[in-house]
Structure formats: structure tokens, C-alpha cells
Amino acid sequence: MASNPSTQPQTIDLATLPTAQLTNLKNQLTQDLQHLTTSFQQLRAAQTKFRDCINSVRDGVERSEEGKEILVPLTPSLYVPGKLASTKTVLVDIGTGFYVEKLTRNIRIIKTPAAARTFYSSKVEELGKNLGDLEAIVQQKNGNLRVVEDVLRQKVISENSAGGNDEKSAVGAAAG
E strand or H helix at 157, and its extent? Predict the structure, then answer.
């Protein structure tokens, strides 16, 4: 029978799971949280990069004159000297080191500094929404992890106290 993708996930009483399964679940949730946290940091870094692009266009192009000597960033820590060829057109960084004149939905080319700022601003906004969604997922996973840790802790304590009582009974019977 095929599963229906619109069905709700099945809830499981964590107290009924054995300690080994709870430990595996805890480890899986921890790995998921680490992955999501890394993704969150990468999205935040991309958002910062786009904000830097907005500032570069605003401060480096719009407020400058053609032929002005500038430093061109090749990486976040490496700049090379250059001259500003034009204040009317710009190349847009679309990620992973690709710079293009990008076509928009209206078949206009993003050439002007204002259009470039609009492009980067929309990317910053989009990443902000993604960061909000991801933050909610991280909080939910973190809550799930805390619940699993609490159940696991209680289960280990009850198993240890049950094991300790059995040992006392065995020692008492042997002494008697």
C-alpha cells in the first residue's frame, strides 16, 4: 500500500522506546541540529555578502567618477588596484564567483547601480525569510532533542535504580 504524503507523521511515545533507540534518536537529532546550524551560518554569511554588495555599489560606484582608482575585491581578504570604467553599468555577482548582466522578468538587463542594489536587496530579503524559516526548524529540533534527552535521562535513572535494588536483594539474600 502506497503512503499518502499528506498524512500526518505518526506520534510515538518515547517512554516505550528502549534506551538504545533513544540514544540513536538523540544522536540523529544532534547531527541534524549541527547540519541546520551550519546551514544557518552559511545563509547568514551569504546575506552579509549581499549587503556588502549593496554597500559597494552605493559607495564605490554611485558616488565615484569614471577613471577613479579603486580597490577591486577578488576575495574577502584580497584586493587588487583598478580603475572605475563606468558609473552607469555594473556586473552583478550571482554567486559562486559568477558575474553577469542578469536578465530580469521584464527582460531588462540589470546594468545600473540602482537596479543592482534592488537585485541585491531582494536577495537579502529572500535570505532573511529563509533564515526565519530555518530558525523555526532549529528551535523545533532543539525542543525535540531536549524532550528525548529528558526521557533518556529518566529511563537511565529508573534502569539504574531498578538494577541497584536487584543487587541489594541479591546481596541481602546471600548474607541471610
Answer: helix 113-175
Joined together, the cell numbers standing for residue 39 give: 546551514
pLDDT in tens, 29-78: 999 999 999 999 999 998 998 888 788 777 777 677 788 888 877 777 88
Residue 103 per-residue DSSP state: B
Tell which residue, 38, 21, 41, 9, has the closest CA to residue 148: 21
As a whole number of angstroms, the distance between CA 128 and CA 63 comes to 28
Rounded to the nearest angstrom, the gap between the alpha carbon of residue 93 and the centroid of all alpha carbons in its chain is 21
pTM (2 decimals)?
0.65
Q: What is the pLDDT of residues 140-164, one digit of tens each?
A: 999 999 999 999 999 999 888 887 6
What is the b/e burial string over 69-106, where b = at least 16 CB atoms within 10 angstroms of the residue's CB? Answer: eeeeeeeeeeeeeeeeeebeebebbeeeeeeeebeeee
The pLDDT of residue 101 is 56
Q: How far apart are CA 133 and CA 139, in angstroms?
A: 10
- Residue 49 main-chain phi, psi, to 5 deg: -60, -45
